[in-house]
Specification:
By secondary structure, the chain is of the alpha+beta class. The chain has a single domain, classed as Alpha-ketoglutarate-dependent dioxygenase AlkB-like (Jelly Rolls, Sandwich), CATH 2.60.120. Helix content is 17%, strand content 39%. It has a seven-stranded antiparallel β-sheet. It is globular. 33% of the residues are buried.
Length: 192
């Protein structure tokens, strides 16, 4: 496992370029692409520029960007993956948002994962599969920027106060790229 990196204002990052070897990453990518019930969510008639799926412990609820997800349990294969990640990181997760970026025009703009359900200093662990894409972090107060290349089989973990002081994004690219699937694991606190 790689070393944690301290960033401004109490943020912490962990980047493991090869959390999965290529064969395991290939197999997981193919399974996710073919078996996950992908949907393109929309808010006020505007579709998100990516496909999504969500899994979580039964009864959990998460709302962001005008969308609300409700937990209905885990597919057994994703439950095993969650357990592997918990053992490797020493963290606990009870929800998984999957994003499928079909091409370079699929993206997500700058944002922070700061919804109340995530608690004070949420840890967000992202497993990346498929094409390598640029992942950007920006500190609005200082203007500091960081860029990471998240490749096939990598793990990127944001923790500490990162979500309070930094924004992150996966921008569009004009470079022809194939599909990327990200699995973002979080711990949600019940809100009901």
């Amino acid at each position: 496992m790689s070393t944690w990196q301290e960033i401004a204002d109490g943020g912490r990052l962990l980047h493991v370029p090869q959390f999965f070897d290529t064969a395991a990453a290939d197999h997981l990518f193919d399974w996710l692409r073919d078996h996950v019930p992908w949907e393109q969510l929309a808010v006020r008639g505007r579709p998100f520029p990516r496909m999504n799926a969500w899994y979580a412990d039964p009864g959990l609820r998460w709302s962001y960007s005008g969308v609300t997800h409700r937990g209905e349990g885990w597919h057994p294969r994703l439950e095993v993956l969650r357990q592997e990640l918990e053992v490797a990181t020493g963290l606990r997760f009870n929800s998984l948002l999957l994003n499928r970026y079909r091409h370079g025009q699929d993206s997500i703009g700058y944002h922070a994962d700061a919804e109340p359900e995530l608690g004070r200093n949420p840890a967000v662990a992202t497993l990346s599969l498929g094409e390598t894409r640029r992942f950007l972090l920006r500190h609005p107060a200082s203007g500091e920027r960081r860029t990471y290349e998240l490749g096939h089989g990598s793990l990127f973990l944001m923790a500490g106060s990162t979500q309070h002081h930094w924004l992150h994004a996966l921008p569009k690219t004009e470079v022809p790229v194939g599909e990327r699937i990200s699995l973002t694991f979080r711990f949600l606190f019940p809100t009901d």
